[in-house]
Design brief:
By secondary structure, the chain is α/β, with parallel strands linked by helices. The chain has a domain of 222 residues: NAD(P)-binding Rossmann-like Domain (Rossmann fold, 3-Layer(aba) Sandwich). 36% of the residues lie in helices and 19% in strands. It contains ten helices and 15 strands. It has a seven-stranded parallel beta sheet with strand order 3-2-1-4-5-6-13, with helices on both faces. Helix 1 crosses helix 6.
């Protein structure tokens, strides 16, 4: 069978980088696209081709192949976690206009399908309990926080993709992402423009140093924790699924309590001194959410492979291997 060609927008990002390597390992011909001028030769070394494209500029798409593209994966666009200074116009340019440009490219090359990453922000209103959130629940947006305009733009992009499905028959696989747990050398992100540690990376750092770790609020608060390699499995399943697509939750459907999360981190990442764990029940509770992944499992034949401890062990291995150092640098 002829090798299928996949074009991946957002290939230099955290999710995009891992996805590219999984696609290559699965035998696809991968065209990696990123905003960065240079990938430092990373993708060529891995067996892919890299193009620098500004998705807000339609003329930039002329650099790309015009034929024989089976699928387009769209993980590009600005996001709050990487926005140091709040600029809502950037969301409109990269997510709304950028998605329209990518859709026009997808249609022009007669690609069979498009895979897009939706944010959990559209179902934020349904979080806070352990009631599983269905894939096809009504999409909304946060009314007044740093994700509001971002979520509005992501929802708009999803609507455009749905329109192109009905107008041109482009199959669409919209993957709703919570926080995707993975190793990246940069452990920081932004909240309202303020630089902060990612909570799980800070906990790992404390465990490595043997520092005391606090469990805030209710230690039984639970969430659905999905590792990057289960997410990339969903992407691969979306490429072979014999359906027209729709909205799919990217999760495990497994509840992991805050206490289990922290004890697991201490178990896996302790180096010399074991961290003491103390409980601070007067502090705020951790946000809760669980995804109903029955549709993802049924239509995409997805079965999660990484439970919580398996994810921690694999991420520790990734920290040692530093596979992406040429692309992202080192800690």
């Amino acid at each position: 069978m002829k090798t299928k060609t996949i074009i991946l927008f957002g290939a230099t990002g955290t999710v995009g980088g891992y996805t590219a390597l999984e696609l290559i390992a699965a035998g696809y011909n991968v065209i990696a696209v990123g905003h960065r001028k240079s990938d430092n030769g990373f993708f060529k070394e891995m067996g892919a081709v890299y193009y620098s494209v500004d998705i807000t500029k339609k003329e930039d798409f002329k650099k790309l192949p015009e034929h024989n593209i089976f699928a387009v994966i769209h993980f590009a666009g600005s996001m709050p976690a990487r926005m140091e200074t709040y600029n809502p116009q950037e969301y409109i340019d990269t997510i709304v206009s950028g998605t329209l440009n990518i859709l026009d490219y997808t249609q022009s090359v007669s690609a069979d399908r498009i895979i897009f990453s939706q944010s959990i922000s559209d179902v934020a209103y349904a979080c806070g309990t352990t009631n599983p959130i269905p894939s096809d629940i009504i999409s909304k947006f946060p009314l007044n926080d740093d994700h509001s305009v971002y979520s509005i733009c992501k929802n708009t992009a999803v609507n455009f993709i749905e329109h192109y499905y009905h107008k041109y028959g482009i199959k669409r696989f919209i993957l709703r992402l919570p926080n995707i747990y993975l190793y990246h050398p940069n452990p920081f992100y932004y909240v309202d423009g303020i630089k902060k540690w990612q909570s799980y990376r800070l906990l790992i750092e404390k465990a490595r140093k043997g520092e005391t770790i606090e469990i805030w609020g209710d230690p039984t608060c639970k969430r659905d924790i999905i590792y990057i390699k289960d997410f990339t499995q969903i992407v691969l399943k979306s490429l072979t699924a014999n359906v027209d697509g729709g909205m799919y939750n990217a999760g495990t459907g497994i509840e992991v309590s805050l206490e289990e999360q922290i004890k697991g981190i201490v178990e896996v990442f302790t180096e010399d001194k074991r961290s003491d764990i103390i409980y601070k029940k007067d502090k705020p509770d951790s946000p809760q959410y669980i995804f109903d992944i029955s549709k993802t499992m049924k239509e995409l034949n997805y079965i999660p492979k990484f439970d919580y401890m398996a994810y921690l062990l694999d991420m520790k291995d990734e920290m040692t291997k530093q596979r992406f150092s040429k692309l992202w640098g080192k800690e």
